[in-house]
Design brief:
Chains A, B: Belongs to the aspartokinase family. 2 copies of one chain form a homodimer. With about 425 residues, chain A is an alpha/beta fold. Helices cover about 35% and strands about 25% of the residues of chain A.
Amino acid sequence: MGLVVQKYGGSSVADAEGIKRVAKRIVEAKKNGHQVVVVVSAMGDTTDELIDLAGEVSPVASGREFDMLLTAGERISMALLAMAIKSLGHEAQSFTGSQAGLITDSVHNKARILDVTPGRIQSSVDEGNIAIVAGFQGVSQESKDITTLGRGGSDTTAVALAAALDAEVCEIYTDVDGVFTADPRVVKKARKIDWISFEDMLELASSGSKVLLHRCVEYARRYNMPIHVRSSFSGMRGTWVSSEPPGGRGGQSGQGEQSMEQALISGVAHDASEAKVTVVGVPDKPGEAAMIFRVIANSEINIDMVVQNVSAATTGLTDISFTLPKTEGRKAIGALEKAQGEIGFDSLRYDDQVAKISLVGAGMKTNPGVTATFFEALSNADVNIELISTSEIRISVVTREDDVNEAVRAVHTAFGLDSDSDEAVVYGGTGR
Amino acid sequence: MGLVVQKYGGSSVADAEGIKRVAKRIVEAKKNGHQVVVVVSAMGDTTDELIDLAGEVSPVASGREFDMLLTAGERISMALLAMAIKSLGHEAQSFTGSQAGLITDSVHNKARILDVTPGRIQSSVDEGNIAIVAGFQGVSQESKDITTLGRGGSDTTAVALAAALDAEVCEIYTDVDGVFTADPRVVKKARKIDWISFEDMLELASSGSKVLLHRCVEYARRYNMPIHVRSSFSGMRGTWVSSEPPGGRGGQSGQGEQSMEQALISGVAHDASEAKVTVVGVPDKPGEAAMIFRVIANSEINIDMVVQNVSAATTGLTDISFTLPKTEGRKAIGALEKAQGEIGFDSLRYDDQVAKISLVGAGMKTNPGVTATFFEALSNADVNIELISTSEIRISVVTREDDVNEAVRAVHTAFGLDSDSDEAVVYGGTGR
């Protein structure tokens, strides 16, 4: 048996009890014959408490010193976890991101990993230790300063280490059982997904699924590192995210194990964190859209969907709509208003009572009936569609925020994803 | 103006207000034209809270992981302090012990400093930054693991850094105004000492004075680094600890500044943390004392005073008494009882209701009346003496614990140390 990397989030190690429970689970993997490397986040609310403290001493909490401060959180959890493991009679050593060889660029608070040189970790596990590594942090190649990786950083640390150590799998432990076909709080009949491809997981992540962040999945895909997302509170199998189903594409184990064949549709995601901006009366000529999105980009705002209708023949004017995080709404409107003379549009509309519903599945590439079924389901549920945007393996629509739960349930049922249905794998439609 | 190292303890940075107050004081030194390097301890109770957490996950809190845990405390305080300084418009960078070049041996929880390579600190201050360094921690030369220096470690960090950076002075900020001629809680008329030699300070520290620990003074003496102990709550001049008085031995500034000439007697220290063990009826022959103290040493107990009386001519037996920390009493008695047959003594007496009073001053070497005055003062105060031990510049006695405050006051007055007396400098006696 080879090396596994396990990652535990802050809610799994929120207190001494949690740390002891996680320690037992880690020791189990070791007893099963694996070499074990563990990536751990800061305990529960530690990071928030440190951020509050920073706010008390300084109005601007950012940069080099903020990273130095926040990394204290993982230092505490990893040392405690190592102690808990030792008290179970197994050897453990904890390592900071710097000691573990997580080399990053110098962009404090949201550094990117440039390289992983896990020599000390490899030596430690080769000597029989369980290695505990601080998530979320690294050391900058240039200045040798401590950096943090920003949101989702601990998951990314785990995947990057797993890749560098040539691990069998990167297990991400969380407080849910895995990735579901829809948010179980909205869709009671949502099913846990046994296996999902990197591509579908990337689309789900960028469409509002919170279990894994886009950045971590992207890293895993680049290095072809299988991820197993599972609960730290149960021993259940969770969701495998990998290029091929365990056992090979289309393989059936026939041993009572669930089929790992990919369903036509992986799941339905939704996201109510975005707002919609419509630029009304844009002259329909080359360069107009470019001007609008240059203005937005210069304000460092990330946009999501972009839709442009054909122009009205009578006026030569068109409307351009796009979605963006609600938190960036004010900034975007301000920037566009300032540039109105230069761009030459009529007016702006801003709407933050919207939500996005996305259907994701590589299967839809070759199943042309999917789009029709999707729109029929929404129509039957009396949900009005305001924007549509599609990719090869995803369809997204924007609706009223009030309609979103109903819409997700309707689509989930229409594609046979409900847990009492047999249709999921065998669905095939006609005419997308 | 040159470089100064300032050290702030946990009580000075216990909360956001404290951190902001300390930040202002640091910026003042910078504005006065100094290069400033700051060594900081963990905030208030942070270290105790971390120790409690460790106790919750593991019965044995020690070793490598315990050091990793505890060093999180300074990481938090130093990052916050750097932020607070930046918000005052000055540049600051924080550094871990490892980044600051504090190289230690591999003895976790009480590592010794082997070398200081402060290249990054020097560069940082040369670039105009205020450098903030985590106290109490280093990195082991051999294993590259994080170590802590044990009790008094932050003071030692400050002195070691000051020596390596060739600083003008190492300022130790604390919650008292300096070193006093006696504990001001016991002796209301205790005086702040303006200057004291390394040697006298070492004797005071090992006799119960808590302001500076022995280890830090020893380090300062070895590298001849002046220490200025002063309050972080006032701008007052504190106590200088150095080989020569500022301005030269015997020099008088005559500019309204207080004389820095060393008094005959530096101060009176007391210590009620020790117990007394008497080994009764030891055969008075070579090797007996060695056997007793080998037994104690093998139990890793540090002893303080040792006294042996002449043996009674009739029996050929003698008594050997020694003092040791009360916390080690049970262990010492156990070890001696086990070895009773081998050593061949009659019985053991254990007494933890004792206290030690010490008079310290290099002046006593050449003033033979000191011992007599000391004993007369105790006698006049009706204090009975149980043990006596002397060094060149110190006399210590053990008395009943109940008598200790009265004894300290009597000695303090007898040597003209009271703050309304003129005698301190001019005292001279006859016949020690």
